[in-house]
Design brief:
- By secondary structure, this protein is an alpha+beta fold.
- It folds into two domains: 104 residues, Rieske Iron-sulfur Protein; 277 residues, Naphthalene 1,2-dioxygenase Alpha Subunit, Chain A, domain 1 (Alpha-Beta Complex).
- The chain has 13 helices and 19 strands.
- The strands form four sheets. An eight-stranded mixed sheet has the order 13-14-15-16-17-18-12-19.
- The protein binds FE2/S2 (inorganic) cluster and fe (ii) ion.
- Fe (ii) ion binds next to helix 6.
Length: 429
């Protein structure tokens, strides 16, 4: 349980807020590179700021304020130029640093371009990596964009899924340190929804949470296993401040504002050995719907089940009304670390997990169960039987709404057709 004041402290992310300032000290994925192949300019709202994200004709990306400095026209209707974007109202042009680089009529009247040189919009650095566009909205000097090893695993097919979730980012991230939800949200509730009234799935018996270089390690085992299971020995990596690493996928929860969150999943699957070598020319990005055609929340896939848990807690979870128990020690550890981070930033220090050493930022290996299998792959028959990789050959069970073109590209990469599966027969680990 938190006081109302502390709940506000952790959940308010707009400009000038303590938590917003803390989270801005990290690079965040905000879009997919492939999204800009057909539409080079789009609006995006991050940390309560309205911005435009664009790909200039020279191929560089920019993230700048959405309103033109002249008379506030919306740059989303602008023109993409060689080295920036131009407002379509009177032609003022801006580069990726927000600097105004052309004011057609003003420069005709005053060739010294004094007004143009003094005109600048707020702008934030962006980088492309692993098929995603990453933004940094904090103070300079910016830290390094993490070079996670899994981004470079060869012979893999990656895809990016983005959904906008109408609730605060923190309740989405608290899900990462809450392993007991797996058996209920993804197994038992799914089983009952499917009309199976047989015994519930194995109970969680023990939980552990440990400090790690880039976040926390969450450990657990369930009935039928013990401390020798990789889920206890290796555990799962919670990435600071808003990520999670499962080996076959990363997740990030990026604040749009206090009541909305971008949920970004980057999933990578090694092709069967028979299909090597495989080089992915393009990492597709797709947007996962959270409601179906009838307006009902989708619950058929793992991520969608998590989403309904998060939005079910309210737009901003009221932590003055919780009843925390032994299953919530990860939640408590996560909040404690954020309070420590807020103190660190107030004292002029970096918060947890910020990377500034280029020598450390090379293919950073994270704790990962079945790392060898995920990284180096398996023959098709062994992959089909593998408890973690096998289900991916049958269905994209992570999230609903995968476009046919992405499924077909995946099937071509794998060399086999996905036949589908009943999710409740599969125990997400
Ligand atoms: S409002 Fe943008 S150029 Fe005038
Ligand atoms: Fe979950």
């Amino acid at each position: 349980m938190l006081t109302e004041e502390k709940n506000r402290l952790l959940t308010e992310v707009g400009p000038g807020t303590a938590m917003g300032n803390l989270l801005r000290r990290y690079w965040h994925p905000v879009a997919g590179v492939s999204e800009f192949e057909t539409n080079a300019l789009r609006p995006i709202r991050l940390f309560g700021e309205d911005l435009v994200l664009f790909k200039a004709r020279n191929g560089t990306f920019g993230l700048i304020a959405r309103r033109c400095a002249h008379r506030n026209s919306d740059l989303v209707f602008g023109i993409v130029e060689e080295n920036g974007i131009r407002c379509s109202y009177h032609g003022w042009q801006y580069d990726g640093t927000g600097q105004c680089t052309h004011q057609p009529f003003e420069e005709t009247v005053d060739p010294s371009a004094a007004l143009r040189k003094a005109t600048r919009l707020s702008a934030y650095p962006v980088q492309a990596k692993a098929g995603m566009i990453w933004a940094y909205m904090g103070p300079q000097p910016a830290p390094l964009l993490p070079d996670w090893e899994a981004f470079g695993w060869p012979n893999c097919f990656a895809q990016i899924v983005i959904s906008e979730i109408p609730c605060n980012w923190l309740q989405c991230q608290e899900n990462t340190v809450d392993p007991v939800h797996f058996e209920w949200m993804h197994n038992n509730a799914e089983q009952r929804r499917a009309g199976d009234f047989g015994p519930y799935s194995p109970r969680t018996l023990r939980l552990g949470i440990d400090e790690a270089e880039f976040g926390l390690i969450s450990r657990r085992y369930r009935e039928g296993t013990d401390e020798t299971t990789p889920l206890w020995k290796t555990g799962r990596a919670i990435l600071w401040p808003n990520g999670w690493f499962f080996g076959h996928h990363f997740e990030w929860k990026v604040p749009v504002d206090d009541r909305n969150t971008l949920f970004i999943t980057w999933c990578t699957i090694h092709v069967p050995a028979e299909n090597e070598p495989f080089v992915q020319e393009r990492i597709p990005t797709w947007h996962g719907p959270v409601k179906d055609a009838a307006g009902e929340w989708i619950t058929s896939h793992v991520n969608n089940q998590d989403i309904v848990a998060w939005i079910g807690q309210g737009a901003i979870a009221d932590r003055t009304r919780e009843t925390l128990g032994a299953s919530d020690r990860g939640v408590a550890a996560l909040r404690r670390q954020f309070f420590n981070d807020l103190d660190a930033v107030a004292a002029g220090q970096d918060p947890k997990g910020v990377i500034r050493d280029p020598a450390r930022n090379v293919h950073i290996q994270l704790p990962c169960i079945a790392r060898e299998d995920l990284m180096t792959g398996l023959p098709r028959a062994a992959m089909a039987k593998h408890p973690i990789l096998g289900p991916f050959l049958r269905d994209f069970f992570l999230q609903a709404g995968q476009p046919d073109a992405v499924r077909q590209a995946f099937e071509r990469a794998m060399g086999s057709v996905q036949t589908g599966m009943a999710l409740h027969n599969f125990v997400p680990r």
